[in-house]
Amino acid sequence: MATTWDRARLEGLIGAELSNRKFIAVSNREPYIHRFTEDGIACFRPASGMSTAIDPIMMASGGTWIAHGAGDADAEVVDQNDSLQVPPDSPRYRLRRVWLTKEEEEGYYYGLSNRALWPLCHVTFTRPHFDEADWQTYRRVNERFADAVIREADGEPAVVFIQDYHFCLLPRLLKERGGDLKILQFFHIPWPNHEMFRPFPWKEELLDGLLGNDLLGFHIRYHCQNFLTTVDRFLEARIDHEHSEITRQGQSTMVRPFPISIDAEAHARMADSDDVTARMEKWRKRLRLGNRLLGLGIERLDYTKGIPERLRGYEKFLTEHPEWHGKTVFLQIAVPSRSHLTEYQRIEEEVDLAIERINWKFRQPHWQPVVLIKEHQSQPEMMALHRLAHYMTVSSLHDGMNLVAKEFVMSRSDNAGVLILSRFTGAYRELEQAVGINPFASHEVAQAIAFALTMSPDDQALRMSRMREHVLQNNVYRWGGKFLSTLLRISDRFEP
Ligand code: F6P
User: Which residues contact 103 (CB under 8 A, 6 or more apart)?
Assistant: First the structure.
């Protein structure tokens, strides 16, 4: 059995090998957001798989996390360096906020990141939108984050751990500015094949930007291979396919798969708490569940998540299985996201219409087949729902990993419950005991629901216990540990 990774082991690695360097993480989304509420300023955790995964790594490293300060009360709680210690109730690391103007947010975040790169990389048949002005703003914002990193490093050696597609130009910008920086980046979303990437108008600059990294990680090997082939097609560079390494102008970038995960033990501990058990009762009443079996979906309201597709599958299931009418309820938690963009307004409308149609078609005096809640839920609330659910559906049309699937599994210490999981997620490659679906095929979704609702407790336990074991072994500390050990290995090679 593989040796277990935990926070102490990761702290040990960082302490032993990286104590002579600052540890700086960079992301767009911040891990803690401050907002004005009726009761004063409150601190929230965002609905972000990225932030769920990086927070424990930062707790272990104790460095600085640089991110966009997007909360309306964010500026009220920082010091003169735009920083504060987090988590607020037991500080372990520093959060440094970068302020963006509305125009910068529009062009860099909504425009280039989420109307161009997001649909381009996910390949879910939503057209990407390319705008020259957005690209210029994206460049400018990447430069502003480069300034923030350089200020933070302050001439000292540092490891800079960049997150995601918002910062494709940042690695090169940092390399150009010099200093003893080891740069690594993780892409939390898929990388498409080169044919899909072809329409991106600023290919060379974007790819060259990413090749400023010493180490570039994707969730799965397939995305690494796609990246290598894309560079091969569109850039002058030497590609060593065997070692998954790209050399351009004398600098090498290692490209490796690192399947991301969660803090599995901590998650399981919180899910088993009395607090969560109490919340289950509250939900049971709110949903008027009685003896009905609960189906569950929780995600951001995003067109990549396949929410209308899953609803079509549920509708087909109800059409074909009248014996289940009144005996099961589907709860969809859809957290509003990027609602400023038309594509997201459309998906919201599509979800609303589908739910209205299903409820109209099948509802009975004391039974509503689908309940929709468009509100972010805290971790304990989500855990309560995981524990209450008979099955959970993750039907992403394409997803780098999908941590919701791993969270559901780690909430189930009772070894009960069924995970219905899209074959087009990174998670499906690891959670082999899930019930696999092609979310585009409503008959498959319908069959999976029928299968889940009638699965024997023994079968549930066998599948769930194996998936839990896998996530426990392959937790986020292992992810961070492997990422950093790989950087250390290749750094040795580069040192004189
Ligand atoms: O995991 C991909 C990702 O874009 C993260 O970077 C991000 O935090 C999450 O999805 C949610 O998106 P956003 O930060 O745009 O709300």
Answer: 137
Cβ of residue 55 lying under 6 Å from some atom of ligand 1: no
Is the CB of residue 188 below 6 angstroms from any atom belonging to ligand 1? Answer: yes
**Atom from ligand 1 closest to the CA of residue 27:** 6
Separation in Å, CA 229 to CA 111, 203, 217, 457: 26, 13, 15, 46
pLDDT of residue 496: 42
Q: What is the pLDDT of residue 2?
A: 57
The fold of 264-473 is Rossmann fold (3.40.50)
Q: Do domains 7-260+477-493 and 264-473 have the same CATH topology?
A: yes
302 within ligand 1 shell (Cβ under 6 A): no
**Cβ-based neighbours of 40, under 8 Å, separated by 6 or more:** none
CA 453–ligand 1 middle distance (angstroms): 32
Quote the CATH superfamily of domain 7-260+477-493.
Glycogen Phosphorylase B; (3.40.50.2000)
Q: Domain-by-domain residue ranges, the chain?
A: 7-260+477-493, 264-473
Of all residues in the chain, what percent carry a pLDDT higher than 70?
Answer: 98
Are 410 and 264 in contact by the 8 Å Cβ rule? The answer is yes
Please, is 99 exposed, middle or buried when counting C-beta atoms within 10 Å of its C-beta (0-12, 13-18, 19+)? middle
Confidence bin at 460 (pLDDT 50/70/90): very high
